[in-house]
Amino acid sequence: MFKRCTIRLASIVLASAVCGHWGCSFTTINAAPGPNIALNDGASAQSALGSSEKIADRGDFKVTYAPAKKLAEIAEAVNEMKALSDLIPDLNANFALAEDLLTVFKECDGQANASYDPKEMKITICYEFIQYLANGFSKVYEKDEDGGEALVNAMTFFFFHELGHALFHIDGIPVGARQEDAADEFATFLMLRLGDDGELAALHAAVAFSRIIGLTDSLDSATLGDEHPLGKQRAFDVICWVYGKDPEDSQMRAAAKAAGLPESRLDRCGEEYQSMNNRWDELLEPHLKQEPAVADPT
Q1: Fewer CB atoms < 10 Å away: N or C end of the chain?
Q2: Which phi and psi (to 5°) does residue 250 adopt?
């Protein structure tokens, strides 16, 4: 079974670079109006869907940092902090990978985006997307340090989301047709295995969905026909799963209710979490090299 990984959240995305290089001011630099986290369906032919056999480990997780012109300060901060560098050994130690998977931080010609490209087997995290979230969190939180922490945590979630897409494709994890929902589940599942820090990170992603990405929600045909659920729907899903991990937590239930989750959904969150948790334990088991180490709760 997949247990809590020894992943250090603070070193995953930007850590102290948020304040150290930006002065926690999150200055606006004309980011695109919103992110477009790409859908990448289709399973790799390199493993049989539904197979319980262990995946042959022929690949490695890798990360690179591209220079930037317009967003040079963000690029320098990400490169100096070596975002994901501490996470990569943990991923390589825990997950079998059929092919190499590269994550690239780069400037994307004004597009605030994070995506997985199945043709190149590459995750791209755009500096514009980091800036877009930074601008949004600066409007949500009064204190710069709170906005910086939320940015780091939300970017962690979005990396895990794209990692989900990559593993669905490269390792052929059978998740069905609604791959965006599955990628959100996968990201939340990993977060919740990280203990209290992971729960907070997942909730910061819910804030991003509701109060940043969700601001562009509409009911026109283009939005409703998109493969992604509405931002606020994604926020409610994540909140429900976090609360569902411990449905006896009255404070979390009150917070989820205050966020807008109806009582009828709250009453089902425990079952939803258990179903999600059991499903991902089973789906990921063939893709784990070994039983991952359990993080020290102290």
Answers
A1: C
A2: -65, -35
β-strands 101-106, 122-126: how paired?
parallel
Distance CA 270, CA 214 (A): 25
- Length in residues, the chain: 298
Q: What phi and psi values does residue 105 have, to the nearest 5 degrees?
A: -95, 125
Counting beta carbons within 10 angstroms of the beta carbon of residue 224, is it exposed (0 to 12), middle (13 to 18) or buried (19 or more)? exposed
Sheet with strand 114-117: strands edge to edge: 61-65, 101-106, 122-126, 114-117
Q: Convert the pLDDT of each residue in 168-188 to its tens digit.
A: 999 999 887 578 999 999 999
- Give the Cα separation of 114 and 84 in Å (integer): 15
Q: Which amino acid, residue 208?
A: A
Residue 194 to residue 245: CA distance in whole angstroms: 12
**Terminal CA-to-CA distance of the chain, rounded, Å?**
22
The answer to whether the beta carbons of residues 14 and 78 sit under 8 Å apart is: yes
Backbone φ, ψ for residue 249 (5° rounding): -80, 100
CA distance 235 to 4: 23
The candidate with the shortest Cα–Cα distance to 38, out of 138, 95, 115, 130, is 115
pLDDT in tens, 214-225: 555 544 544 444
For residue 90, give the nearest of 3, 8, 154, 185 by alpha carbon.
8
pLDDT at 76 over 50: yes
Q: Give tens-digit pLDDT for 108-157.
A: 999 999 999 999 999 999 999 999 999 999 999 999 899 989 998 999 99
Query: In the structure encoding, which two tokens stand for residue 205, read together?
Result: 């992603």
Q: Rounded to an integer, what distance in angstroms lies between the CA atom of residue 75 and that of residue 159?
A: 17
- Residue 69: Cβ within 10 Å count: 7
Q: Looking at residue 177, what is its pLDDT?
A: 58
pTM to 2 decimal places:
0.79
